Amino acid sequence: MTVSKRDFLKWSAAAGSSTALSAWAQAKPLFDTINMFVPAAPGGGWDGTARALERAAKAAGLVGNMQFENVGGAGGMVGLPRFVNQRKGQGNSLMIGGSVMVGAAIANKSPVTMKDVTPIARLTEEAGVVVVPANGKIKTWKELTDALKANPKAVSVAGGSAGGTDHLILGLMIKALGRNPREGAYVAFAGGGPANAAILGGQVSAGISGYSEFEEQIKAGRMIPLATSGSRRIPGVNVPTMSELGLNVTMANWRGVFAAPGISAAQRDGLINLVTAIVKSPAWQKELETRKWTDVFMTEQPFQRELASDIVKTEAVMKELGLA
Question: What is the pTM of this model?
Answer without folding.
Answer: 0.76
